[in-house]
Amino acid sequence: MKKHLAILLALKKHYLEGDTALPQDAEYGFWSLKKLIAINYLIPQFGRLARTGNFTHCYYLDVLAGSGLVKLENDTTIPGSAIVALAAPTTEPHFEKYFFIERDPSKSDLLKKRLKRVAETTDREYEVMAGDCNAVLPGILNAIYKSDQEHTCFLALFDPEGYSETVWSTVESLLAHGKGDLIFNFTEGIARNVEKARTDPSYLPSLQRYFGESDNDWLQCDGYDRLIDHFSYRLGHVNEIRRTTFRIDVRGEDNRPLYALLIATGSSGYANIVNDLKKRLDVIEVRDLKSTYDQLVGKSRSIDSYGGLL
């Protein structure tokens, strides 16, 4: 954990020095560092597994990319998932191209400026596309699979804040197109809105698009955990391409569940890597993240490596 937080701080120094947080930038708590650690942990090992699977064309997709900067509490800022992904070290075959989709024009403009600083030192090909991911992603998939579908794979991040940004048909089209792995943020708010939908039909249309089930089986799932199990199963069974789905919980300071990172992979080798990540992140709490962060920035005199985690 300490190593990965140090990397995030180094990215901040190199690429966001003097970059003041703006109203368009997302504001989360220290718990959001778990997701950034996961991305920084998984990307460097993707190429090695792709090579063993005889894939020669790899792509990274972030369909709700944000502005490139995240505000934590007390005006603390940290690089967002897009910067972490573009700056992360990779192994051959390196990602041929990184695609970042952001529907908010002001955020996509900020992201373009911030990623440009990263690309100047990493020499990586990327594209920031403004628009609804559900409309933009199909065109990207058609382009990357056009010439050599058999040897093409992806690593994708879906990070919705709720249930209206993405629809199941978009997730399904990605997973059905070919081989690759998905990181999906399933928020606790889904469970609360499913509960409301049982008595208020106005919630049904958006939730039906999110789950993509005409029979509304999700309405029969009692509680957050059952809904996660249901959605995880569906991620693992798209178009006869079987994937193993792992769940990494992210909780707030009061231990209340906020969201679950669902990581679906069809590779047994990558499954071992994700399982190792899960074991490491599952024991880390928000207080651990805050304490280690404070140590790294010189706000705390105590030294605790948390058993060498990560």
The first-to-last residue Cα distance is 4 Å
Low-confidence stretches: 300-310
Main sheet: which strands, in order across? 6-5-2-7-8-12-11
* Helix-residue proportion: 40-55%
Structure write-up:
The protein is α/β, with parallel strands linked by helices and 310 residues long. It has a single domain, classed as Rossmann fold. It is 44% helix and 21% strand. It has a seven-stranded mixed β-sheet with strand order 6-5-2-7-8-12-11, sandwiched between helices. Strands 1-3-4 form a three-stranded mixed β-sheet. The longest helix has 20 residues, at 33-52. The chain starts with a helix and ends in a 14-residue tail after the last helix.
Blueprint of the fold:
Layout: H1 2-15, E1 26-27, H2 33-52, E2 57-62, E3 69-71, E4 77-79, H3 81-87, E5 95-102, H4 105-122, E6 126-130, H5 133-144, E7 152-158, H6 168-177, E8 179-187, H7 189-197, H8 204-211, H9 224-235, E9 237-238, E10 241-242, E11 244-251, E12 257-265, H10 268-282, H11 286-296
Parallel strand pairs: 1-3, 2-5, 2-7, 5-6, 7-8
Antiparallel strand pairs: 3-4, 8-12, 9-10, 11-12
Helix pairs in contact: 1-11, 2-10, 3-4, 5-6
Give short descriptive properties of this protein.
seven-stranded mixed beta sheet; 44% helix; disordered C terminus; three-stranded mixed beta sheet; alpha/beta; 310 residues; single chain; Rossmann fold
Question: What's a concise summary of this model?
Answer:
By secondary structure, the chain is an alpha/beta fold.
